[in-house]
Specification:
The chain has about 200 residues and is α/β, with parallel strands linked by helices. Helix content is about 55%, strand content about 10%. A five-stranded parallel β-sheet has the order 2-3-1-4-5, with helices on both faces. The longest helix has 17 residues. It binds cytidine-5'-diphosphate (CDP).
Length: about 200
Amino acid sequence: MRFTVAIDGPAAAGKGTIGRAVAERFGFGHLDTGLLYRAVGARVLAGERAEAAAASLSPDDLADPDALRTPEVAQAASKVAVIPEVRAALLEFQRAFAHRMGGAVLDGRDIGTVICPRAEVKLFVTASAEIRAKRRLDELAARGLDVDYQTVLEDVRARDARDADRAAAPMVAADDALILDTSEMSAEAAIAAAIAAVEAKQAG
Ligand code: CDP
């Protein structure tokens, strides 16, 4: 059985939380595509060219996801993500994952528009920048990273602007995406809405 759930949206909107929960509920595989861009960004921070890093990305680059989930790597990721050659190098891997047997959930920025325009379910998860910054601050603090709210808010805003304004696969909701504004929604309610969307599609 092939079934693809595409989850897009701005930085720290809760795409990962929803994606993991949906994957677990239905036994689908889950790919956080942001990690691919973060891995390329990390190699650029280490001195490589973005195009070369993207072309030679390997599972080793993703072995320590927490090391990639830092504000510095996030900024580097959104800078390499504007480069068409970088996006092209990562495309086939994402498409193959989306079409795997047993179902797949992918979260990112361009899943419903470019990677899987025919995904069975498309969600665009969003929330106000302030709320997203607060959630990301809590996540980073829980991992022992010392950052302040204003810095996180600026990171989120800078990446949103870069991601939405770029020419190559800009962040935008697909016409047929269900928009989930989680500003005033608990994680449980957002997960329930996503699960309901998958069940509705499966039912008919
Ligand atoms: O977790 P968070 O929402 O903060 O970011 P992420 O999903 O890990 O993505 C990091 C950066 O990678 C984003 O700011 C985008 O610039 C880029 N990205 C992208 O361009 N396309 C994707 N499908 C996923 C991420």
